[in-house]
């Protein structure tokens, strides 16, 4: 069987983000996706209305049912929703400390909707940071996690919090206006930088898709740098061809080519 990524992520009924993004991205990366569902959200391409988080016990029961059953070598987390779920994931990773782990520190939906209580999530994420093979924050998330406005300070701070590697995604920065610059740091050192033409519009599920594709490629034993490069190229194409479900809504990455 294909190497498997176990995703801790929430259901987005619009299909743009969350566990559907994870399943599609990981499948397209060549790996298999298994899911421990963290929350059922109520949202569409425009708004997040509310969510119900899975209980800690139910979340762990899902993960435990598949961990010895499938060839899982990588974990990816997206929306965790509650501090209980963050603690449950930390416990799971402690029990399986040979797993690679991609931490997408989801705090707020791209539409601006709330996916948990922000200050509590920021504090709770600190237990997961040292455990991650790579963390994939956008600059809004990086600033929130570190309480540093300046990006150089924020990057230094996340390594002080125990990070091993961080992919800082530049899509939320206003400048440069025509390109997006992503930077991959390992042990505090910049090891890879990419520059992609900026595609007009707001996207729903772009972060989930990128992190999951990276997780899929790590599961298939690519190096981190190679996994990031392949994921960026694939996502760029999915965003170029994105669907627009509603005139006021965000675009949805077209993950299948
Ligand atoms: N996970 C879930 C369940 C979501 O609903 C969202 C956003 O709506 C996200 C993750 C993060 O999405 P994005 O990739 O747009 O940051």
UniProtKB/TrEMBL annotation:
Name of the top EC class for this enzyme: transferase
Record GO biological process: thiamine biosynthetic process; thiamine diphosphate biosynthetic process
Organism domain of life: Bacteria
EC number: 2.7.1.49
Keywords: Kinase, Transferase
SUPFAM superfamilies according to UniProt: Ribokinase-like (SSF53613)
Organism: Acinetobacter marinus
Pfam families membership: Phos_pyr_kin (PF08543)
Cellular component aspect of the GO annotation: cytosol
Keyword Protein biosynthesis attached: no
Pathway(s) of this molecule: Cofactor biosynthesis; thiamine diphosphate biosynthesis
GO molecular function term, any single one: phosphomethylpyrimidine kinase activity
CDD domains registered for this protein in UniProt: HMPP_kinase
Record protein name field: hydroxymethylpyrimidine kinase
UniProt-listed InterPro entries: HMP/HMP-P_kinase_dom, PM/HMP-P_kinase-1, Ribokinase-like
């Amino acid at each position: 069987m294909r190497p498997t990524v176990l995703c801790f992520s929430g259901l987005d009924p619009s299909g743009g983000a969350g566990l559907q993004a994870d399943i599609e991205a990981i499948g397209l990366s060549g790996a298999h996706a298994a899911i421990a569902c963290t929350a059922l959200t109520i949202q569409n391409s425009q708004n997040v209305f509310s969510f119900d988080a899975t209980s800690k016990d139910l979340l762990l029961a899902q993960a435990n049912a598949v961990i010895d059953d499938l060839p899982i070598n990588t974990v990816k987390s997206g929306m965790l929703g509650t501090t209980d779920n963050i603690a449950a994931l930390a416990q799971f990773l402690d029990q399986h400390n040979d797993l690679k782990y991609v931490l997408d520190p989801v705090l707020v939906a791209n539409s601006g909707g709330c996916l948990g209580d922000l200050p509590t999530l920021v504090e709770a994420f600190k237990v997961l940071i040292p455990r991650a093979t790579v963390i994939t924050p956008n600059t809004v998330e990086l600033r929130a996690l570190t309480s540093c406005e300046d990006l150089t300070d924020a990057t230094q701070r996340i390594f002080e919090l125990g990070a091993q590697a961080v992919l800082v995604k530049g899509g939320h920065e206003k400048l440069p206006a025509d390109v997006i610059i992503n930077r991959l740091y390992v042990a505090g050192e910049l090891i890879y930088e990419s520059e992609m033409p900026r595609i007009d519009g707001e996207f729903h599920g772009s972060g989930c898709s990128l992190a999951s594709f990276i997780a899929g490629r790590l599961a298939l034993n690519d190096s981190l740098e190679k996994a990031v490069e392949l994921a960026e190229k694939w996502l760029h194409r999915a965003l170029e061809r994105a669907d627009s479900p509603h005139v006021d809504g965000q675009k949805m990455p077209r993950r299948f080519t």
